[in-house]
Amino acid sequence: MVEWSPPVRSHLVGIVAVALMGVLGASGIAQEKPLPDLQVFLAQARTKLQTDNARQRSYIYVETQHERKLDGSGRVRSESVKVVESYPPLPGEDERWERVLEENGRLRTESELARQDADRRKTAEAVAKQLSTQTPADRAKAARAAEQERIEALARINDIFLVYDIRMAGRERIDGLDTIALVLEPKPGARPATREGKWMVYFRCRAWVSETDHELVKLNVEAIRSANIGFGLLARMNTGTEMTFTRRFVNNEVWLPARADYTVRARVLMLKRYLQGGTIEFSNYRKFTVDTTTTIATPPQ
Predict the structure, then answer these.
(1) Phi/psi of residue 217, each to 5°?
(2) What is the pTM of this model?
(3) DSSP conformation class of 142
């Protein structure tokens, strides 16, 4: 899944993205044939979710990040644009590395790009050195951590089915694909096991899943209750917060992010109203290889 700033927006969007984008997977409606059995369809979709993260880690792509500050009526007051090349994390890193290519219309110079690349190579070399000196105990610890991460990912998937009442809304065609539209409503009294699951109860979702390969094509997430962040001392997320994610099939191999749109409504530090929107567009996908960790070049346009 991707990370954005400022902190409040990043926190909210990050939680929802981790909890839902890798979990589920308009338009002319075509209802000529019966809809598939709901439970069978969900079981098939669920098998794809468990490998999504690993597949996305195999790709580099460019993100064009539009960030908009809005007034109380939702009109744009100001906008910033940043273009970054996003790389999978190195072993031991939690987040992808972003190589900044352009900011507010200004291309980074060759020397600025070279400095970013040099810093990243130093980090990669340090990680490689650390890995080369690992003891059997270190490797066993890393294996346990990887297994724990796998268990936690499965727990987040399980929370989807604990938190939501899921029903089929029909068959819809999106970008030439037949999809099954799913409506996800939080169940009263749901008791999720994970932190992400506890956030899910604040959101109503609609998901469009490909009928042929059971992959997520589009996801809409809408806050239906206000929620405190940091016991309300840091911020309070308000209803009206909404996010939409779309994905595309890349290289006849994997579904990856295509676009994300969001509007975040909150009150920061119990005082300041926070209203921000934005769009992230994903492009220039290419396979991640060992060479890309040591030789970094501007992606083809």
Answers:
(1) -105, -40
(2) 0.77
(3) H
> Residue 6 is encoded by which pair of tokens?
């400022």
**What does the buried/exposed string (b/e) look like for 43-80 if buried means 16 or more CB atoms within 10 Å of the residue's CB?**
eebbebbeebeeebeebbbbbbbebbebeeeeeeeeee
What is the average pLDDT across 97-101?
96
**CA angle 207–215–95, rounded 5-degree value:** 90
Dihedrals phi, psi of 42, to nearest 5 degrees: -65, -40
Q: Which two tokens stand for residue 166?
A: 């899921």
Q: How far apart are CA 245 and CA 258, in angstroms?
A: 8
In contact, 214 and 249? CB cutoff 8 Å = no
pLDDT at 168 over 50: yes
Q: According to DSSP H, which parts of the chain are helical?
A: 7-16, 38-49, 52-56, 110-132, 136-163, 195-200
